[in-house]
Give the backbone structure.
Amino acid sequence: MVLEPGSEVAAAAWSSADRVTAAAIGYVELRAAIAAAQRDVRIPTGDEPAVWTEIETVWAGITDIRLDTSLLRAAGQLAQVHRLRAYDAVHLAALVAVEGPAAVQLGCWDVELRRAAGDMGYELIPPRIEATR
């Protein structure tokens, strides 16, 4: 796909995980991120078909957490309590729906989502990042 800072850490965490889960909205975010990389010409034109195929293969290995009314209401509460953006709150609610902090880790490079999950006791991958915003 697109190599970015943290790609190696993400790949190592992915390969050592028993399972990988994500909020279903992550599929849209993944495709939007790849489309942005395409627009920014960070993906060579000839590589584009293979990248889109790889996206589908990657997502097929993810257990997606369906968004339902209960999860969205939990996300709303988390957004309020942790002062999160909407989609970050959805991802945090999906994390909570999977299992508690003792059983799962969050691989994430978003500063605010990491802060909220860390405050709730979740282990973060990577343990530290440099803030970019």
